[in-house]
Every structure is written in structure tokens, then in C-alpha cells.
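Revision sheet: C-alpha cells.
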Amino acid sequence: MATTAHGTQRRADVLTRERIVDAAIELLDAQGENGLTFRALAARLATGHGAIQWHIATKNDLLKAATAAAVARAVEEPAPGVSPREAIHAIALEVFDAIDAHPWVAGRLARPPWRSTMLQIFERIGRQVQALAAPAAAQFTSTSALLNYIVGAAGQNATNSRSPAALVGRRQLLAAEAEYWEGLDPEQYAFTRTMTKPLREHDDRAEFLAGIDLILNGMPTSR
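Predicted:
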């Protein structure tokens, strides 16, 4: 029985690519890209550099793998029967939630060259844009606008939610910001001063999807 238990433990401790990527994501979440080193990763996994690099050779490859794992659900095929607009909403929310959970992902997706994960998201959105019957001449611009909005807005939301001011709580933060807007010069900020109520009450995810719909509603279609 002792030998069997020992063998089971050894199998459980086998170093795999998945374990390495999971540990890398934990380090990135805690310390950002600067905190992700092979030395730190080896210490977390209680192994050596060579064992890790046998699976993933460079830090750049590690970052690519971690980014792909973090947004894996965003590049899945849509469920049968889902409309193109619903599919775009689903992709957008998966990216939004992934960046909210792992803020470093936004920087990785926005950084050229746009390959691997970013290209997969572009492909998934582009197929839905085609399904909406956007003219060929508008498909690149429409898909790019959606992708840039999704990554940019999600990244900004993640940054805001982790700012020092946000530590007091979202409701208190928005109330304080609205109060500041109310005190702005009425001539310089005539519009902004009228937006304090929606600022206090808005839902981040709902506003995010509303932005998606503004782009989709303005997109030309041949239908």
C-alpha cells in the first residue's frame, strides 16, 4: 500500500505544461510581467529551470501560453443557434471577464505583433461580422473597431477597478467622482455636469455591451 501511495503522489507531482502555465498565471496576477521569471516559477513549482524550459523554452513563449489560457473561452466556437450579435456579445464578455480577472492580459493582447490569441479573437469576431452581412469593404474596419474597443474598454475597466481610489469601493468611488463633476465649471463642462446621475448608477458590463451595440448598429450591412 505504501508503494502505491508513493507512486500516486509522484504521478500527481509530475511537471506538465498545464501546471507551468497555471503557475505562471498566478505569478502574473500577483506581480505582473516583471515578477514572472524562470527563477520565481521554479521556486513556486519546486523544480529546476531546465525542467520548465523543457516544456516552454522562453519567457515570451510562457507569456503567450498564459495569455491563451486566460482567454481560452473567448476563442471557442459559438453554441449552435446563437445569432451573430449574441456571439459577438459572448466573445466580448469572455474577454472582459478574463481581463478583469487578469489585468496583464490587456497589455499582452494589445502588443504587436498581433498573433496567436489576438488573431484568434479577431477571427472569431470577423466570422460574426461576415454573418451579419457586412460588405466586404467594411469587414476589416468593423472587426478591428470591435476588437480595439473590446480590449481597450476591458483594459480600462480593469485598471479602474484596481486603482488605489477604488479600494474604498466602487459605489463610493463613483459617488466621489460624480460630486467632483458637479463642482466643475458650468461653462467649460456643460455636458459633463449633466452626466453625474448615469455616472453614479451605471453598470460596467451593461455599458460595455452598449458600446458593442453602438458599433454594430453603425456597421453597414448588405441586408
